[in-house]
Amino acid sequence: MANKKQSMEAQIIKYLPGYNCGNCTYRNCDEFAQALVKNETKLSACTVLHQEKFRKNKVELNLLLNSRDEEFCKEHKIKGVIDEYEADMVLDPLDGENSCREVLLHFSTEVLNVGDIIEYRPLGCPVVHYAKILEKENSLLTVHIIGPCKRIDDNLSYRSLGPCMVIAFEGKVAGTNVAVGQTVRFLPNHCMMQKIHSGVIVNLEANKIRIECIDLKVWAPPVVAV
Question: Which CATH architecture has domain 8-76?
Answer without folding.
Answer: Orthogonal Bundle (1.10)
